[in-house]
Specification:
By secondary structure, the chain is mainly α. The protein has one domain: ABC transporter involved in vitamin B12 uptake, BtuC (Orthogonal Bundle), CATH 1.10.3470.10. The protein has a two-stranded antiparallel ribbon with strand order 1-2.
Length: 324
């Protein structure tokens, strides 16, 4: 496992160098001012957002024991979208001040959604009755989906009421966009804080993933661990969405890819998901900046367009081997 993690560290370093060499005018390292003032903040933002999404996805899949869970089932991203688009709709404008207002709006919306999620699911997470454990996971997912659905309704209303000038920026934000992203430290801090909350007790997350009955017999405080894992996933998701918009695909697929590669225990899977998610987003953004240069595509579009066939190519041989 250590060798795989070291390989991921090396791959992440190569991806960062690759991202710094990618520009809207072509490949190669430009003047130092361009590299460090324009490209480096964007690469850092992409790596931080991807790391936070990969980590949040792994946590949600462990917490809910659902292979289809991703960071966005919490509804936190929906709240962030409402906050960010609300800031854009009510005159956040352009420039540094406008960027900070959008980030602040996204963080406020994400925190509001997370608070609502905890308020509605607190008793669900506290259920210690072993027989109710599966229903608890399903109910938690349903609470998150309902919050996300309500947020989607508000987002739709904001899009309908937006002017043509505002609409383009809103749509790009919803697709996941790193153009002008300068708040990479926010996403990196969110990912590190989330990892610090859960990694010291990673083995207990493995036991939780095997079932609450198993974990309880081993002395795990089930309700407390569930709440901490949920809090960590909410923090990571909020930081990522506030930084780069709603980049899809990463949190769902990156943990699965790493499991297919043999990283299954939480102590390895969680940091590996952070490294893998950050690496993937940096590489996808490098392609988004250069494939139709000087135009720039939303990174979320490239992430899905490149990631889906790559994941299927990795998954299908394993599925055939399992059948036969």
């Amino acid at each position: 496992m250590t060798s795989r993690l070291l390989s991921l560290f090396a791959l992440a370093a190569l991806a960062l160098a690759f991202g710094l060499a990618a520009g809207s005018s072509g490949w190669g390292y430009a003047a130092a001012d361009i590299v460090w003032q324009v490209r480096a903040p964007r690469v850092l933002a992409g790596f931080g957002a991807g790391a936070a999404l990969g980590l949040a996805g792994a946590l949600m899949q462990l917490l809910t024991r659902n292979a289809l869970a991703d960071p966005y089932v919490l509804g936190v991203s929906g709240g962030a979208s409402v906050g960010a688009l609300g800031a854009l709709a009510f005159g956040a404008g352009f420039g540094v001040r406008g960027e900070w207002l959008v980030v602040a709006g996204a963080l406020v919306g994400a925190c509001g959604a997370a608070a609502l999620l905890f308020a509605l699911s607190w008793r669900l997470l506290a259920r210690a009755a072993i027989a109710a454990a599966p229903e608890t996971s399903v109910a938690l997912l349903l609470v998150g989906v309902m919050i996300g659905t309500a947020a989607s309704a508000v987002v739709s209303m904001l899009l309908v009421l937006a002017s043509d000038l505002q609409l383009r920026g809103m749509v790009f934000w919803l697709l996941g966009d790193l153009d002008g992203a300068t708040h990479g430290l926010t996403a990196c801090a969110g990912a590190l804080l989330a990892l610090a909350l859960v990694w010291p007790r990673a083995r207990e997350l493995d036991w939780l993933a095997r079932g609450d009955a198993w974990a309880a017999t081993l002395g795990v405080p089930v309700a407390r661990r569930r709440r901490i894992a949920l809090l960590a996933a909410a923090i990571a998701t909020a930081a990522a969405v506030a930084t780069a918009g709603a980049i899809g695909f990463v949190g769902l697929v990156v943990p699965h890819v790493l499991r297919l590669l043999g990283l299954r225990d939480a102590a390895s899977l969680l940091p590996a998901s952070a490294l893998g998610g950050g690496t993937f987003v940096v590489l996808a953004d490098a392609v988004a900046r250069t494939v139709v240069a000087p135009l720039q595509l939303p990174v979320g579009v490239i992430a899905a367009a490149v990631g889906v066939p790559a994941f299927l190519a990795l998954l299908l041989p394993h599925a055939r081997a399992a059948r036969g």
